[in-house]
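Q: For a teaching handout, I want to show students what a protein-ligand complex looks like in token form. Below are the inputs, and the small molecule is Palmitoyl-CoA. Please produce the holo structure.
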Amino acid sequence: MATSSSTTISPRRHESVSRWRSGQPPAFALLVYPITLLVGSLYSAISPTAQSQQQSTATRPGPVVPINYFARKDNIFNIYFVKVGWAWTTLAFVSLLFTQQAYTHSPVELRAKRSIKALLRYAVVTCAWILTTQWFFGPAIIDRMFTLSGGRCENISILADSPSPSSSAAAGTAHKVTEEIKTIFTAVACKAAAGHWKGGHDVSGHVFMLVLASAFLAVEALGASSEECKPLADGAKEKQHNINTMDHSAVADIDDRFKVWSLRFVWGVALLSWWMLLMTAIWFHTWLEKLSGLLIAISVIYITYYLPRTLTSWRYVIGIPGI
Ligand SMILES: CCCCCCCCCCCCCCCC(=O)SCCNC(=O)CCNC(=O)[C@H](O)C(C)(C)COP(=O)(O)OP(=O)(O)OC[C@H]1O[C@@H](n2cnc3c(N)ncnc32)[C@H](O)[C@@H]1OP(=O)(O)O
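A: Here is the structure, written as tokens, with Palmitoyl-CoA included.
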């Protein structure tokens, strides 16, 4: 006699499958990131082409002749995608809020609750991105880690390029400016002064942001389009039925198209982020610099998406995508 599928699937596997179906990827799904970094780093260690390019961006003295297009800092994906990556991430996330059933076709109260919690999750990851890469009551966390680990801005040429000071006052000002640049210590200030960020532990901002953005979008997209969001509550079903009978085909058609294209866009941004992560792993930074970027990003994702599964009070505040 044939056995039903529910009896052939082990409870553990069943739980894992139902987690995926309800839009909650299991924690092991995050392994894709260390594996990507590992594969990229191994490739860079083994491939003779990559070996000649791969060195810490912190110690890279100046422009190098790129062997591979993705080893160039000015590659089009780096400039128009990664360097403004949070804008793409925000756009993709907003498109989910406006098109996915979880936020548009559920009963009003549930819709409001889900949207507020999704915005809170966005605020948490955005704050983490800002504090880590942009500003942390002054220099960002990665800049502070760099200087705390002994790094500094060297070879500042801004003054060397300027006309030599003709008076002691001018020399004094020049000295003061140099000292200020050395003590501000942000990667941006250093770059603006044509200096080189040297000596310390330069956490990979690319790895951090690409892991954070792609995991955030993937988990939100899975939640928003999960099976659990599809069935409507009884009252809502009836209401929806009345609307549907009026002008079903036109509205539903447009809705469906936006829904599908929004999901494609979100997965496109997530996949391109993953690809750029792999490129970063091959062509830039050291093992440790990549690992520290990864650990910070994974911690933020864990706190935002995995901790609420076990910590009820936190789940009450921040929710779980699609629930
Ligand atoms: C609870 C309530 C709270 C409420 C609170 C609300 C908060 C919530 C509301 C806020 C609302 C905000 C909403 C914002 C929405 C936006 O629109 S923000 C505006 C858009 N801006 C962005 O997205 C900026 C994103 N970029 C970044 O953050 C940084 O550029 C990154 C990505 C972290 C990278 O930083 P980085 O300095 O490049 O550092 P790193 O990765 O270490 O790379 C070092 C070098 O190697 C190169 N490199 C590394 N990997 C690669 C690669 N794969 N290819 C080429 N080059 C590479 C880099 O280009 C870099 O070269 P240089 O530029 O230094 O020459």
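A: Two things your students might notice: Residues 1-6, 159-163 have pLDDT under 50 and may be disordered. The radius of gyration is 25 Å.
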